[in-house]
Design goal:
Largest sheet: 8 strands, parallel
Number of helices: 14
Helix content: 40-55%
Number of strands: 16
Structural class: alpha/beta
Bound molecules: zinc ion
Distance between the termini: 34 Å
Order of helices and strands: EEEEHEHHHEHEEEHEHHEHEHEHEHEEHH
Shape: globular
Strand content: 15-25%
Length: 375
């Protein structure tokens, strides 16, 4: 057993369900906060639990470079290392290699790159990316893919898609041969609490690529489904393309993904976008936007976006968002939040992030409620 996915209600193309992982149940559609370095910047794990976070995302590329996969494995895996008993998803490292690292070179075997931290040389292959993710031990891990740059001409998008398909095959093969090596299953087996055969394993998701070519997206979806995964992601979006194009690509891809399996749209989006994509039948999303924007004083509220550094809030005694029930809005004034931000107080980042995450999580709670009511 790795994961199980149950759809409890549908409304139009939208679905409300439960993703049952070895580390708890995740209600979908879900927004996954990003904890790049095994930490959602500024927010303690206990607070994330109180906010109702059931799954968070961590980045393989960053953890591979620092503190290193072996270090995390020796600590029992990411859950124990960061003291997060609920579900975790790790990306494959592919996206960060393509967006952050220097001097990367792609060939059939994999990608060589230099660390953005110290310039050291590394080589990722589908196999080593799987080994890294097994060592980290997230509940859900991602196949190693090439994130096609934008713009890319049609031939480039096709070649890149074909490479991702071959890498998906290799990712799955390595995963199947090594999935029993996940650190938390090892410790349960050693403690006699489960057997090698019965121990839960991680789940590996496939990733659809194909650039902005709608027919390639369809082909990529169909051929990734042929390889066979327990869930599918739509990757290679939010790479600088117009938002309407993102929507077109998602609309062209979703019908070719299995209806009874989870669909994950990577790297999206604003509060309006996560609602729109849930309506289109997406079950999982992640984005740095709410946490990163919070650290820059940009807050999402029921009345729209607020830049808390604005002088207009200096004497505003009202709550940040009058309809938000989060611990920030129920306790502090806009004037105080503006003061914290203007004074570069660490607490500004903490409080702003807690509010933004609450806004995203509440948005998804409302989406799930609406689906269950058939609205
Ligand atoms: Zn709030």
């Amino acid at each position: 057993m790795s994961i199980e996915f149950c759809i409890d209600a549908t409304s139009g193309d939208a679905r409300a369900g439960r993703l049952i992982t070895p580390h708890g149940v995740v209600q979908t559609p879900v927004f996954m906060p990003v904890g790049t370095l095994a930490s959602v910047k500024g927010v303690p794990q206990q607070t994330l639990e109180e906010l109702g976070v059931e799954i968070l995302l961590s980045n393989t590329y960053h953890l591979y470079l620092r503190p290193g996969v072996e270090q995390v494995r020796a600590m029992g895996g990411l859950h124990r290392f960061m003291s997060w008993p609920r579900a975790i998803l790790t990306d494959s490292g592919g996206y960060q290699v393509f967006s952050l690292s220097e001097l990367r070179k792609v060939n059939e075997e994999g990608v060589s790159f230099r660390s953005h931290l110290d310039g050291s040389s590394h080589f990722f292959t589908p196999e080593s990316a799987m080994a890294a993710q097994i060592g980290l031990g997230a509940d859900i891990m991602m196949a190693f893919d090439e994130c096609t740059e934008h713009p890319a001409d049609r031939q480039r998008a096709r070649d890149s898609m074909e490479l991702t398909l071959r890498w998906a095959d290799r990712s799955k093969k390595y995963f199947e041969e090594h999935k029993r090596e996940v650190p938390w299953a090892q410790s349960l087996i050693e403690a006699g609490q489960t057997t090698v055969e019965e121990a839960a394993t991680q789940a590996l998701f496939g990733i659809v690529q194909g650039g902005m070519e709608l027919d390639l997206r369809r082909e990529s979806a169909e051929r990734t489904v042929e390889i066979g995964f327990p869930g599918y992601a739509i990757g290679g979006l939010s790479v600088g393309e117009p938002r309407t194009l993102t929507q077109d690509v998602v609309a062209a891809t979703v019908p070719h993904l299995p209806a009874d399996q989870p669909r994950y749209l990577m790297g999206v989006g604003t509060p309006e976008e996560i609602v729109r994509y849930a309506r289109m039948g997406i079950d999982m999303m992640d984005c740095v936007l709410p946490t990163r924007a919070a650290r820059h004083g940009l807050l999402f509220t029921s009345e729209g976006k607020i830049s808390i550094k604005n002088a207009a809030y200096a004497a505003d005694d009202g709550p940040l968002d009058p309809v938000c029930h989060c611990q920030v809005c129920s306790r502090y004034s806009r004037a105080y939040l503006r003061h914290l931000y203007a004074s570069h107080e660490v607490l500004a980042m903490v409080l702003n992030t807690i509010h933004n995450l609450t806004h995203y999580l509440d948005t998804m709670r409302a989406v799930r409620h609406s689906i269950k009511l058939g609205e």
